[in-house]
Every structure is written in C-alpha cells, then in structure tokens.
Design goal:
422 residues, alpha/beta, five-stranded mixed β-sheet, 11 helices, elongated
C-alpha cells in the first residue's frame, strides 16, 4: 500500500492524505482520499500490509555531485560535505541519500536531499496511528524513463523533469494555467537551463535525445515554442496521468530514502524466524569446539609419549648425560662427536652433491640444462641455461635451503647449495 504524503509543514489527526494500492502513474488506479485514522483500520484488516510513502517532489532536492572513488560506505559518509556547496542551509539539517550513479560523468552521483525535521514529523505522525513505513520514494521515481530520454510531467500541483539516472528538476507550475482547457503551456525557463547545463557535462549520455512531455487531460502544450527552446531534441507530447501497467510499475530499491538514521526498525518477527537457525549454528560451533579440544588433548598425549620414548632411548645410549632438554638434538650432537673422535668425518662435497642430485630429481629435465658446476668453500654452484619459466618455478618450489637465482643472461639460473651443519 502507498501513502501519498501531502506537501504540508505540520500534520495532525485531521490532515487529509491519499492512499493507493499502486504507486504514481501506474494502471488505472486513482489514489483515494483518507484520514490518518483510516490507515489504522486498513493496517488492522491487513496484518501483512507493507506501507510505502510517496513524498512530494517539492520537499526533495536532487543534486548531481562529484564524489571520490571510495567504497559505498565511505561515499555515503561524505555526502553531507558534497551537498554543503549546493544547498544554502546547514547540511546537518538535511537527510541526504545517494540514489544512483549520475550519467553526467565518472564518479558523479545523484543525491536526494530532504529536510530531516520534516521527514521526522511525517514518520512521527504516521507512527501515532501505528503505521511504520518500510520505504519512501519521490513521486518521480516511478516514471518509466528510457535511456537518453527525459520525462517532463505537468500536473495540477507540480511540474518536473526526470532524467534517466533519476535526477529530477522541479519547475514552477501554475494551477490555473495547467487546469484551464486549451491554455497553452510554454516551456519552463528552468528546463532550458537544465538542458544547457548537461550539454557541457563530461559524459554526453546525460544529454537527452527525446523529451517526453506528459500532461493531464485538457492541458495544451505550445509545441512550437517548446521545440524552439529545446533545439534538435525530439519532442513527444502525451496526455493522461497513467503511463504504465501495474505489473511494470516500480522504483529501484536504491531510490528508497528511508535509510541510515531513518531506516525502519528491525522486525521482531524476523528474529523469531531466525532463532532456530541461530540455535543450530551455536550447537554446531559448540560441537566443533568440543571435537577440536578432544583432538588437541589426544595429540598432546601422543607427543608426551613420543618424548618419553626418545628420552628413554637417549639414556640407554648415553647414560652419562645429566640433563635432557631436547633428546633429538642432543642425540645428533653426541653422534657427530663420536664420529669425530673415531675419525669418521662426513665429506662435505658428497653431502652437497647428494643434495644437488635430490633437487634435480625433483625437477625433470633440469640436469640436461647444466652447463657449469663449481664446488668451493663449502658451497656447490650449478649453472643452468635455457631454463623455461615452468622449470624455474619448479626449482624454487623444491629448493628447500638451496638458493635459486636468476643470472643476468636470459633463461640462465644459478643454484647455490651450502653445507648444512647442526
């Protein structure tokens, strides 16, 4: 259900409004007059009613602003600064929403600004009748508008032009001129200014190729004057207020103005519906923590058992050891000491060659690329030429403690292997 909010400064129990099952310009439905008390009865009769507001164009200012290329969250935080130069009021008193990217250039956005105090009064007025809207849109948001097309609407109370990107220009509209039969309507001067403004924009997509003028029945457009004012832009004139079917009517969700501080409160029914899923998630997380704890305890037990076996084996072979800190490391050092005492010294060159052989075996075809071998000062250097990128990557992946370097010559790789000492 849609509530057409009147363009008034104050609201009370006797303030008239209009409601409809469809948004503006949809189907053949005409909004019907009602009082705020009528809304409460409608809401009670329809428990699932989702109220949406249609706000008067005169209460909304649309701004084409340049914003920095940052995330959407940071961009929304900068909106107040962007509108400061456009409006002559305190930005803190304005509720500003980015409704869409603008067609006028890169990093430009369409911003809808509305007075915070006025919107607060509207929501408080409706809340007194237990009406809590889920969304609010400008009336122009429901105008069907094709690419490179502007829609100009003349009605009894308002006249405006809507661009494809959603930006809306408000024009002065005379009730007597619009309502009098056959009274010619000249092109608004503000429309000419808007067209001249977009012609110098960075992106020419914002310049319309068609101006679709929609008027109420009985209105008369001075087509010659309009065509002269808009130049080479095509002019299309249609009468009647209904422009689309109920099935096709709708406004983009990003044009909803009830966001940020004015976002609807979270529905308790939603939380109740999610409680079973939340409880199941908590149960799954608890079981996961229990299983992880049991697995950690089992691994700790195995680690203590292995350490006990290593200490026992170390004491059997080296009973003179007074303290055991790291049985594995102490065992290796004692074995090396025994080898040195008995004259059994490991040949460093054999160790280096063995490691080089192992590395080359892990990289098929690498041994065929060897052009030089240099062994000196405890280091073995292999020079490989014509090494493709895939082989170079495989060498680096299997190098371990070895160093794989690119030589200045293209396709040449140097592999350096040093002696590992404990």
């Amino acid at each position: 259900m849609f509530i057409y909010v009147p363009d008034l400064s104050e609201f009370g129990a006797d303030t008239p409004l209009e409601i409809s099952d469809a948004p503006p310009h949809v189907g053949q439905l005409t909004p019907r007059r009602a009082m705020i008390s009528d809304l409460a009865s409608v809401s009670a009769a329809r428990a699932s009613t989702a109220w949406q507001l249609i706000l008067p164009i005169a209460r909304i200012s649309f701004i084409d602003a340049l914003l920095p290329p940052v995330s959407a969250q940071k961009r929304q935080a900068l909106v107040q600064f962007a509108i400061e130069d456009k409006l002559t009021v305190d930005p803190a008193s304005i509720h500003a929403v980015i409704v869409s990217p603008a067609d006028s250039g890169r990093n430009r956005f369409v911003i809808a600004a509305i007075e915070r105090a006025w919107l607060t009064r509207v929501l408080r007025w409706l809340g007194g009748a237990n009406i809590h809207p889920v969304a609010a849109f400008a009336a122009s948001a429901f105008e069907p508008c094709a690419p490179r097309e502007w829609v100009v609407r003349f009605a009894e109370r308002v006249a405006y032009a809507r661009r494809t990107d959603g930006l809306t220009y408000l024009f002065e509209s005379s009730h007597e001129s619009v309502g009098r039969e056959n009274a010619p309507l000249p092109p608004p001067f503000a429309l000419t200014l808007a067209l001249n403004e977009v012609k110098v924009a960075e992106d020419t997509r914002v310049v319309p190729t068609l101006l679709d003028v929609r008027t109420q029945a009985g209105a008369n457009i001075d087509t010659a004057a309009w065509q002269q004012a808009i130049g080479d832009i095509r002019l299309k004139v249609s009468s009647g207020t209904q422009t689309q079917s109920a099935q096709s009517g709708g406004a983009p969700s990003n044009m909803n103005l009830l966001v940020g501080d004015f976002a609807p409160a979270r529905d308790n029914h939603t939380w109740r519906a999610l409680r079973p899923a939340f409880a199941l998630g908590v149960l799954a997380l608890s079981l996961q923590l229990v299983f992880v704890s049991i697995d950690a305890w089992r691994l700790a037990q195995e680690r203590r058992s292995l350490r006990g076996q290593m200490e026992s084996l170390f004491r059997q072979n080296f009973p003179e050891a007074a303290t055991i800190v790291d049985p594995g490391l102490q065992m290796r050092r004692n074995v090396d000491a025994l080898k040195r005492e008995r004259g059994i010294a490991a040949d460093e060159s054999q160790q280096l060659l063995a490691r080089a052989t192992a590395l080359l075996q892990l990289t098929p075809g690498a041994n065929e690329r060897i052009t030089a071998i240099d062994l000196r000062a405890g280091e073995l250097q292999l020079r490989l030429e014509g090494v493709p990128d895939a082989m170079r990557a495989a060498l680096r992946a299997s190098a371990g403690t070895a160093m794989v370097e690119d030589a200045p010559q293209a396709g040449t790789v140097l592999v350096r292997i040093g002696v590992t000492r404990t």
